[in-house]
Amino acid sequence: YSRPLVIVLGVGTGNGSRTGGSPLAQLLGKMGQIIGNCVVVCSGNEANARLHYQGRLEDGMSEDVEFRVGADTKGFALELWGNTPDVFSVSLISPLGESIPRIPARMGASMEYTFLYEGSTVTVDYQITENVAGMEVIFVRLKTPVEGTWKFYIYSLTNIKGSYNAWLPLKQFSGQDIYFLKSDPDTTLTVPAAADGVISVGAYNHYTGAAYYESGRGYSADGRIKPDFVAPGAGVYGIAPSGGVKVTGTSYAAAYAGGCVALLYSYQVNVKNSQMINHNDIKAQLI
Prior knowledge:
Elements: E1 5-9, H1 23-32, E2 37-42, E3 52-57, E4 62-69, E5 75-82, E6 88-93, E7 99-103, E8 110-114, E9 121-127, E10 136-143, E11 148-156, E12 162-167, H2 171-174, E13 178-180, E14 199-204, E15 229-232, E16 234-240, E17 243-248, H3 250-270, H4 279-286
Parallel strand pairs: 1-2, 2-14, 14-15
Antiparallel strand pairs: 3-12, 4-11, 4-13, 5-10, 5-12, 6-7, 6-11, 8-9, 9-10, 16-17
């Protein structure tokens, strides 16, 4: 129809590097760079969920990362993303003190171990250079983990001051009580909110002017400013089959911002008689 297009994505995932390197992030970024298109995404609601850990290791040293697993947990995956060019490896200790020794980092290696006393199973997959973001990623999958405090040891294999990020799965997806004991509320935006070429939206409380405390935070894992701005997302009005309701979260803030983008495009086309405007122009006007 040769008309502007606004795409609003009110969902996100906890899987990925938070650098905009996932296939979905790249696809949305390319769509958003087309003149007349604008892609608006939410930043998630994970700032206070204690699902992110950030660490930095000196030459060839190690550190331990503790996380708590609640009762009746069926299983989950932890992702550790290391910044190039450093390389990391891991070992694991269960709440009962049973340990898995340091697992060597090998290209494309996958290893499975069983804890004899607990009956838990752990699988560790290494990708030294992940094929999209170009970073090292370590996937750790735990099946039927016993309740208690688990401990990871993370080792640097180079003489570089290496930094890394680790994320646990989103609570909305897992429905399980899993969290880091020493967590970092920053870089908690969901994927694909770190993508270039999209407008990433967090939430604030428009009644008080304060930030919405659960709104996913930046920066991106590679240091870019994301989300781009915040919109009303705490107790805003929405529509349900029963009628008007009050809703909260960055998905609604993204929808709110998407409506603003549509109004700006409408003004550009109907009043100024022009469609030559891209997402950077729109983002600058909203900021």
